[in-house]
Amino acid sequence: MKEEFVHMEQEALSRIAGAPDLKTLDDVRVAFLGRKGQITEILKGLGNASPEERRSLGQTANQLKGRVTQALEERKAVLEQALRQEKAQQQRVDLSLPGREAPRGQVHLLNQIADEISDIFIQMGFQLALGPDVETEYYNFDALNTPDDHPARDSHDTFFVKPGVVLRTQTSPVQIRIMEQTRPPVAIIAPGRVYRVDLDATHSPMFVQMEGLLVDKGITFSDLKGTLMHFIHSFFGPDIQVRFRPHFFPFTEPSAEVDILWTAKDRHTGETKSKWLEILGCGMVHPEVFKNVSYDYEEYSGYAFGLGIDRIAMVRHGISSITHLYENDMRFLEQF
Ligand code: DAH
User: Is residue 192 within 8 Å of 131, Cβ to Cβ?
Assistant: First the structure.
């Protein structure tokens, strides 16, 4: 019997030592220590032995069971450790790989410029005002002294939403909405999107303007000029040359366009060139406009101006096509 035990132990230990994985090891455990395992069966069979035999065989069998159990546990620990190492190896982090970039949002160039310009006017006491993109023909044209057959309408190529309702072609209707709601003095700037049926390198069907309006007693063209000069010098620098050129707008009289003398290096030849570039329209509010909002034009006078934000962005940064501003190509936008 004892010899059998020695044999069984040797077999058990050698199968344990040779088990290549946890599954095989567990099979060995079941074969010896399971409910029908070899060692279990011996212990069960002791019931039939004589008391002395039972004592000595029982002790030997229990010691055998103890050693096999310990060998199983040790082998299990070794195999588990190996498995953990293998997994860790598979999941190893390669610290030499370049990091993945987390893309970061930023304010769009047009909004940066609009914010910068707004700040300059807000510091002079202007308040921010907004109006709707979908506007009635009355606010967009009629109230601004632009009747149906007026030639100025031709230059606007309007998107109609339905008869009498348009996508605003300019931010000027905000002037009317503000004057209807408030009494002078009024000093507002109104940035916003405007829409025209137009598309080429310098025209986009949607673009951004900023309107300005100031009404009070005794306002003259020199107030307009002083305010705009302050803005232009703050924005483009104190040395920039400016010219006011007579122009026509239906809602101002007299009216002007303002150009700046812009010097830029030619990207290809490296040569510096100067050009007069138009950046805004302006003028003294037309008496007809005051009549439409029931302002007494004998008592009050005022000026208005309209800036093209896209135009100013293009001039300042040497952008050749307005479409760049709306394509949302990150390689372009990230430069600003
Ligand atoms: N609304 C004009 C346009 O879109 C720009 C403009 C010119 C606005 C003169 C004004 C102004 O307020 O006084 O072409």
Answer: yes
